[in-house]
Amino acid sequence: MDISVGVVGIGIMGGTIVEHIARQSEAVYGYDSDEQAKDRARGVGVRVTEDVLTLAQCCAIVMTSLPSYAAAKSVIDDIAAAAEPGCIIVELSTFSIDQKLALRAKAAAAGHVMIDCPLSGTGAQAKTGDVVVYASGGKAAVERCEPIFAQFSRGCFNLGAFGNGSRLKFIANHLVAIHNVASAEAMVLAMKAGLDPKQVVEVIRAGAGSSRTFEMRAPLMAENRYEPPTMKLDTWFKDIDVIDAFARGMKVPTPLFDSTRAIYAAASSMGYGAVDTASVCAVLEQMAGLVRSPLGGGIQDGTERPRDATL
Predict the structure, then answer these.
(1) CATH fourth-level superfamily of 166-301
(2) What is the pTM of this model?
(3) Given a cut of 60, is residue 271 above it in pLDDT?
C-alpha cells in the first residue's frame, strides 16, 4: 500500500486498526491524547505524531475513532486546517446522523471528503480482524478505502447515501444491547439452577439459543472477569442514547431495548463503568441473591454481592 493513512483515536478499537495496517505498511500514522495508547502504537511500528495537525499533513486518508462528538469536532477542525485538499476522512465513531452531517459539512468546507463508516464488532473482535465496515457516502471514496478496510476487517458493505452506515450501526447496536442483557439473564438463571457456568456457555453455543453476543460475552460472565474491556460500559451509554433518540425520531417502539437501560445504569452505579459491558451479569446476580468469588468460584445464595469495580 503506497497511500499514507492516519488514525486519530488509537484506543481500544482505533489502536487495533492501526496495528493491523502497520503490519502491511510503513506509511501509517497515529495520534491519541493518551500517552499509553501512543506507546502501544509505537511498539507496533506506527508513526505516532504529537498532534492531529501533523498527522493530517502527512496523510491522504485519515480515519477517526473518537469517544465524543466534542472530540470529533476539534479533530475535524484540525484535519480541515492542515490536510491537503481532497483528503478522505473516514469517520468510524458512533454519533447521531445530525452530528455526522455537521462533521461532513466542516470537512467539505475545507475541500475534503468525509465518508460515514462505523464498525460492527468489539475490540476483541478487532484484534482478529473480525469486524465489519458499514460504509456510506461517496462511492469513489469508499472504493478507494476498501483495500485499507480489508487489512483490518472481514468485510465492507457499501450502503449508499451518507448516514446509512450509521443507521445500520444503530440497528446492530440495538440488538447487541438486548442480546447482552439477555445473555446475562440466562447465565444467572443457569447459575441459580446450580449449573456449571462454563458448561452452560459450551452447550448454549452449540444450540439454537446462541448469538454472536452470547459467544463473545457469556465466557466473560462465566469467568466473572470483565477486564480488560472490549467495550467500556460507560462508553456504551453514548451509543444507547443515540439509538434511543433515533428510534424515537422514527416513532418506533423499542420495549425490549428500553428495558435494558436500567440494567446498564445499575451496573454503572455499582462501579462497573470502566469495565466490560458483560458486567451487567453482576447486576442480575445481585438481584437474584447470587454471590461469586471474583474469578468465578463457588456460588452462594442470599448474600449481597460486593461492589468491586476492580474485580
Answers:
(1) N-(1-d-carboxylethyl)-l-norvaline Dehydrogenase; domain 2 (1.10.1040.10)
(2) 0.89
(3) yes
